[in-house]
UniProtKB/TrEMBL annotation:
It comes from the Bacteria. PANTHER family: MOLYBDENUM COFACTOR BIOSYNTHESIS PROTEIN 1 (PTHR22960:SF0), MOLYBDOPTERIN COFACTOR SYNTHESIS PROTEIN A (PTHR22960). Pfam families: Mob_synth_C, Radical_SAM. This is GTP 3',8-cyclase. CDD domains: Radical_SAM, Twitch_MoaA. Binds 2 [4Fe-4S] clusters. Binds 1 [4Fe-4S] cluster coordinated with 3 cysteines and an exchangeable S-adenosyl-L-methionine and 1 [4Fe-4S] cluster coordinated with 3 cysteines and the GTP-derived substrate. One of its GO terms (molecular function) is GTP binding. Catalyzes the cyclization of GTP to (8S)-3',8-cyclo-7,8-dihydroguanosine 5'-triphosphate.
Length: 322
């Protein structure tokens, strides 16, 4: 079992396979980042898998593949298969913008992927294009349907932004409700890579908008998910990811590995250590020791809602995988 320096059990590894992306979401990477990690600095799938194996052996029970846009990296289904074949009862999932799912969904399901979380910020062509800075909506909707048709369990992520998509939060929920997908609204997290004008809605503001149409109550959190869940009177469950709440980090069970082998203890903080050399020299004991050291130094919480005001993170979401 893996326990961090604050006594929290850590059983969830998020692995970013690339920082590149085919979208430029305003809240994540509005301009093309000026220096992508060169391809030769990326860990191969075999090396990423070696670390996933170490983590599973040490107590990780949930692995999420993310990015950048993970489907941009060729052969992702091979990586999925390596993990699924190693331990079939791992909660293995993917977070994607869905654009490349029409072709990839069935291959991923065949390789052993169980579920998928997709980003859907708007159901309006122009608004979706404004957020992603590309005409994406039709293909995204096809991708989500392809995932569902391939038997993957789908959840939808939506980042509400003031003056951009806040007028359609209920409509997006109704779409998800009809399709049977749980939706989670994510509070925008301040960071230095987002568009300067980006402004998110907090949980209370999101709830007030939903309450204009639906009554709902707060319910228990589901397993190790970061989402606080709420239930409508007809039983439909939606979630809000509320990192600005004081107790959000109290139940943190997550650690992140980047595509170049940097192990990041927290989405928010700078401190991180590389497992690249240990993995590439097959020094498994050293990789396990780095994992434990990073966990021992995992910070207690973020400072997005510090007393002195929101503190902005220099961490890029496209690099850490969100
Ligand atoms: N601050 C913070 N935000 C997080 C954390 N984990 C997830 N999030 C936010 O929630 C977003 C959605 O997460 P997903 O990639 O869908 O994964 P998940 O919510 O853990 O997935 P489930 O297991 O299906 O609940 C992330 O991209 C982040 O924006 C966390 O540890 N800290
Ligand atoms: C970094 S993306 C990577 C996976 C994939 N490209 C996608 O968009 O689903 C993972 C998640 O991070 C979320 N995200 C990115 N920037 C964010 C921000 N500033 N605040 C809150 N969530 C953010 C996205 O909405 C998405 O759900
Ligand atoms: S949120 Fe995902 S899709 Fe949007 S720019 Fe970031 S990595 Fe790309
Ligand atoms: S901000 Fe850091 S400590 Fe808090 S939940 Fe996210 S990863 Fe965990």
């Amino acid at each position: 079992m893996l326990i961090d320096g604050h006594g929290r059990k850590v059983d969830y590894l998020r692995v970013s396979v690339t920082e590149r992306c085919n979208f430029r979401c305003q809240y994540c990477m509005p301009e093309k980042p000026f220096s992508w990690v060169p391809r030769e600095n990326l860990l191969s799938y075999e090396d990423l898998f070696k670390f996933v194996k170490v983590s599973i052996d040490e107590g990780i029970r949930k692995v999420r593949i993310t990015g950048g846009e993970p489907l941009l990296r060729e052969g992702l289904e091979n990586f999925v298969k390596m993990i699924a074949d190693y331990k079939s009862d791992i909660d293995l999932a993917l977070t994607t913008n869905a654009y490349l799912l029409p072709k990839a969904a069935q291959k991923l399901a065949d390789a052993g992927l169980k579920r998928i979380n997709v980003s859907l910020d708007s159901l309006n062509d122009e608004v979706a294009a404004k957020i992603a800075q590309k005409d994406v909506l039709k293909t995204v909707l096809k991708g989500i349907q392809a995932a569902s048709d391939a038997g993957l369990k789908v959840k939808v992520n939506c980042v509400p932004m003031k003056g951009i998509n806040d007028g359609e939060l209920v409509e997006i929920m109704d779409f998800c409700k009809e399709k049977g997908y749980p939706i989670r609204y994510i509070e925008y997290m301040e960071n230095q890579h987002a568009k300067d004008t980006a402004m998110g809605l907090n949980s209370e503001e999101i709830q007030a908008i939903i309450r204009e149409k639906y009554n709902f109550k707060m319910i228990e959190r589901e397993g190790s998910s970061p989402s606080q869940n709420y239930q409508l009177e007809d039983g439909y469950v939606f979630g809000i990811i509320e990192p600005h709440k004081d107790d959000f980090c109290a139940t943190c069970n997550r650690i992140r590995l980047t595509a170049s082998g940097v192990l990041i203890p927290c989405l928010y903080f700078e401190d991180a250590q590389s497992i690249k050399e240990a993995i590439q020299s097959n020094d498994i004991d050293k990789a396990a020791a780095i994992l434990k050291d990073v966990l021992a130094n995992k910070p207690e919480k973020n400072k997005w809602a510090d007393e002195e005001g929101n503190e902005t993170s220099s961490r890029a979401f496209y690099e850490t995988g969100g």
